[in-house]
Amino acid sequence: MEANSNSELSVTLDFTVPFYDLDAIQMVWHGNYVKYMENAREAFGAKFGFEYLHIFNSGYTAPVVDMHIKYRNSARIGDQLKIKITYVPSKAAKMVFRYIVTRPQDNAVIIEAETTQLFVSRSGTFETSNPDFVVEWKKRWNIPLPSSTK
What we know:
Elements: E1 10-16, H1 32-48, H2 52-57, E2 60-61, E3 64-71, E4 80-88, E5 94-103, E6 108-118, E7 120-121, H3 132-140
Antiparallel strand pairs: 1-4, 2-7, 3-6, 4-5, 5-6
């Protein structure tokens, strides 16, 4: 599997808004966009070999420590949506992702978002440098590493 020609690592998912994601005014409840982002994050991990289970089996967790969502339009039941997740390269020991949810039939941007996840060891310590499994993953995808990393 190769990265895109511009070295962008991204995945796009298509989905239909289900009834159970609506609020009392028949729009997607704002919190469900976080679920859509997580679905995209899992698809990214599956495509690029960076699944949560891989992180966990390497002795770490990766909690979200920062999240920003800009709500641009609302989505309703039956809307066909696309969510694109893009990895934002960083030399630091973190994962940053950008998301955009769109409704292709009218080219509406529904949300734009960004999340940051840090690596935490099983002992509960936040990592200040890239764990070995992250260094290997970044090398595989030609992501810059700090100059002090082998």
